[in-house]
């Protein structure tokens, strides 16, 4: 379960960083494209509500200032030389208000207003007005703030009056308004808390009319702006943020799992070492009673583990096979020394006593539940595949697989080792015995695995004589 969890966390720690990086790049690229897009709207496409121009994201209000100061008559409009310009003119204060209807910030904006009839502009305030005059086929361009006209050398067609300069604008001329940075006009914040987020621009126009209620129809123009949105307002930001948080959580979890797994593996190694040392100590007690079989249990355990690997067992299963095989002869500790160490052939009575070591071993290991199947290794390793073994005479698949493996390993080591009553058998004799008893004493599949290992040189013979 821990390994599966660790693999899942590793997979997530590969996928999530790519998702976060890709999502972040996509998020900021989308935000950049959104913020860098210039939005251009002509007044002709706006929805007209009275004097208001309603666009997709903003509203432009353009009307005379209300109250008595909104318009006034001027009986004689003449230049500084006394030349009469208009015998009767109306001066009107116009205010243009740009209102931000979005939740974003309007930035980098300006508007263009086209002059629908001949007139004069007398004063402006806030930012600069960039005038475009067309006289005799020639265009004159100059940016001015007429409320501070003394700072400029006016090159446009104009004349001076006591109230300041009068810049001539004919039908078809236009001006572009550039917002004032000093007055904080360059950005227009959204509406918040019932407070309109907007900018007001003012200018005074004189036209040859007698009615103070006359309003110039400024219906031709254009507004340009960018919308600057914060990535924090993009719903996808929270998706990316959630993925980043999940990544951090997975990374911390993976580190924690790795640390716990490392501690677990170290604990397992210590436990395995303790179990092996305990078992080996017990085996040493057994083999001390019969020095002629010294190392037999260890070799059987090693052969059994190699056979288990050849048969496709997992690493942990092979370790279990090793420990079970190591204890296969533990019951011999209850066999009398005179029988266990007898150099000659055992009598029938002695052989019956010797056979009891399988049952004794099972009894000794009955409370050893840490390793599953350890009792079966001791109890059944002398059962035969044909059912003629002991102690229970079971056969074939009835015999636990671990016991069938130990049976082959035990017999091979007995033939391949020197005993007090004989030398180790030759290579040909051992192979002949294995093949002749395949399917009778031994499981054929285990014998085939052993012969394969011998052929590969993984398991070697002690007696090199043929």
Q: What's the helix and strand layout?
A:
Blueprint: H1 2-36, E1 39-42, E2 47-49, E3 52-54, E4 58-64, E5 71-74, E6 77-78, E7 84-86, E8 89-100, E9 105-114, E10 119-125, E11 128-135, E12 138-144, E13 158-161, E14 164-169, E15 174-178, E16 187-188, E17 198-207, E18 221-228, H2 235-289, H3 296-310, H4 315-326, H5 337-340, H6 348-355, H7 357-364, H8 374-380, H9 401-416, H10 427-436, H11 444-456
Antiparallel strand pairs: 1-18, 2-3, 3-4, 4-8, 5-8, 6-7, 8-17, 9-15, 9-16, 9-18, 10-14, 10-17, 11-12, 11-15, 13-14
Helix pairs in contact: 1-2, 3-4, 3-9, 4-8, 7-8, 8-9
Radius of gyration: 51 Å
Shape: rod-shaped
Distance between the termini: 51 Å
How much of the polypeptide forms β-strand, as a percent range? 15-25%
Mean pLDDT: 88
- Give helix and strand order, one letter per element, not per position: HEEEEEEEEEEEEEEEEEEHHHHHHHHHH
**Uncertain segments of ≥5 residues (pLDDT<50)?**
none
- Number of DSSP strand runs: 18
Approximate helicity band: 25-40%
Overall number of structural domains: 2
Question: Which structural class fits the helix and strand makeup?
Answer: alpha+beta
**What is the helix tally?**
11
């Amino acid at each position: 379960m821990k390994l599966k969890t660790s693999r899942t966390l590793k997979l997530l720690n590969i996928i999530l960083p790519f998702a976060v990086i890709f999502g972040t790049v996509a998020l900021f690229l989308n935000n950049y494209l959104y913020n860098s897009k210039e939005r251009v709207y002509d007044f002709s496409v706006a929805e007209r509500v009275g004097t208001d121009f309603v666009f997709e994201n903003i509203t432009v209000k353009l009307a005379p200032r209300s109250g008595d100061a909104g318009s006034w008559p001027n009986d004689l409009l003449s230049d500084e030389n006394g030349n009469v310009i208009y015998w009767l003119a109306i001066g009107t204060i116009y205010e243009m208000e740009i209102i931000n209807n979005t939740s974003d910030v309007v930035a980098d904006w300006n508007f263009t207003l086209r002059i629908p009839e001949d007139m004069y502009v007398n004063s402006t305030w806030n930012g600069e007005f960039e005038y475009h005059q067309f006289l005799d086929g020639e265009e004159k361009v100059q940016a001015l703030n007429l409320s501070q006209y003394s700072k400029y050398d006016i090159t446009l067609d104009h004349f001076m009056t006591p109230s300041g300069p009068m810049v001539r604008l004919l039908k078809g001329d236009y001006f572009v308004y550039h917002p004032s940075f000093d007055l904080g006009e360059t950005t227009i914040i959204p509406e918040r808390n019932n407070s309109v987020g907007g900018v007001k621009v003012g200018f005074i126009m004189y036209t040859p009319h007698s009615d103070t209620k006359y309003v110039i129809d400024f219906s031709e123009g254009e507004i340009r702006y960018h919308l600057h949105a914060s990535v924090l307002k993009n719903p996808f930001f929270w998706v990316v943020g959630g993925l980043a948080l999940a990544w951090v959580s997975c990374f911390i979890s993976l580190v924690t799992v790795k640390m716990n797994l490392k501690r677990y593996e170290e604990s397992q190694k210590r436990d395995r070492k303790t179990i092996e040392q305990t078992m080996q100590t017990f085996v040493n007690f057994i083999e001390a009673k019969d020095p002629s079989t010294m190392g037999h249990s260890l070799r059987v355990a090693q052969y059994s583990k190699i056979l288990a690997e050849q048969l496709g067992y997992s690493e942990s299963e092979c370790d279990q096979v090793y420990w079970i095989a190591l204890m296969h002869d533990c019951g011999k500790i209850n066999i009398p020394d005179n029988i266990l160490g007898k150099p000659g052939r055992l009598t029938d009575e002695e052989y019956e006593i010797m056979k009891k070591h399988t049952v004794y071993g099972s009894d000794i290991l009955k409370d050893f539940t840490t390793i599953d199947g350890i009792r079966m290794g001791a109890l059944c390793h002398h059962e035969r595949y044909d059912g003629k073994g002991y102690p229970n005479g079971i056969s074939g698949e009835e015999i636990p697989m671990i016991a069938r493996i130990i049976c082959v390993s035990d017999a091979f080591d007995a033939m391949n080792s020197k005993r007090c009553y004989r030398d180790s058998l030759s290579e040909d004799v051992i192979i002949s015995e294995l093949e002749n008893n395949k399917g009778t004493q031994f499981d054929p599949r285990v014998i085939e695995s052993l012969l394969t290992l011998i052929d590969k040189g993984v398991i070697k013979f002690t007696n090199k004589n043929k």
